[in-house]
Amino acid sequence: MKASGIHYYFWMNSDWAYLGADRLEAIAHKHGVPIHYKPVDLPQVYARTGGVLLGQRSPERQAYRIAELQRWCRKLGVHVNPTPRFMCPDATLASTLVIAVNQAGLPVLDLYKAILRAQWCEDQDISDPAQLAQILRAQELDTDYWFPQAAKAKQQYQDHTEEAIAAGVFGSPSYVYQGELFWGQDRLDMLDHAIELHTESV
Questions:
Q1: Which of the residues 109, 112, 138, 187 has an alpha carbon 20 to 30 A from that of 101?
Q2: Angle of helix 15-31 relative to helix 59-76, nearest 10 degrees?
């Protein structure tokens, strides 16, 4: 992680990443720092860091997740369906598409938010290439070009995952700034403060 800025590790199935997306952008813009977008394979992260996939968690933990989502949705004025029709399918293609577009130097905020919104707000299956093609077209991205590029980005997807684990990441979304890890969109205020303190000290 030699590049300065915010290293943003997130799962393309993360409802919490969707809730934090706009606020992260606002923080980065306020401080003039870049965001390095790094989709990761969260099931692999969990397997190697002691995490438990949602469907395997106790009923109490699953119920509390829904309560927290509802609280944050009310607070932020954002809609999320806690139990969408296609919940947390294989995110490989969605992730590699975002990586490919990002590697080309194009903005990815609207693209990754559209994919997350498709799952958490529109009951769409984001593992379905046809659904992803529709999202790409809505972003004015050529599917005939970007699907082959996504296939070439699989190693980078694994590299992001390895890098995340090395940085101490164990959940999504996670933000690393100046070597300090912040887990969860509910820590964005703390990330904001850390950037402010660092900016003042240099």
A1: 187
A2: 40
CB 1 within 8 A of CB 169: no
Q: Looking at the 3D structure of the chain, how many domains does it have?
A: 1
174 lies in some domain: yes
List helix spans (H) across 104-166.
109-120, 129-138, 143-152, 154-166
pLDDT digits (tens, 9 = 90+) for 43-60: 999 999 999 999 999 999
Decide if 125 is inside a domain. yes
If you search the block for the tokens 């860091």, which residue do you land on?
49
Q: What burial class does residue 50 get, using C-beta atoms within 10 Å of its C-beta: 0-12 exposed, 13-18 middle, 19+ buried?
A: exposed
The encoded tokens of residue 51 equal 């995490």
Residue 1: inside a domain:
no
Catalytic residue from among 14, 95, 127, 172: 14
Q: Which domain holds residue 160?
A: 6-201
pLDDT at position 117 over 90: yes
Say yes or no to pLDDT of 2 above 70: no
Catalytic residue check, 14: yes
Would you call 161 helix, strand, or coil by DSSP? Answer: helix
Examine residue 173 and say whether the peptide bond preceding it is cis (omega within 30 degrees of 0). yes
State the CATH number of the domain containing residue 17.
3.40.30.10
CA-to-CA distance for 145 and 3, rounded, in angstroms? 28
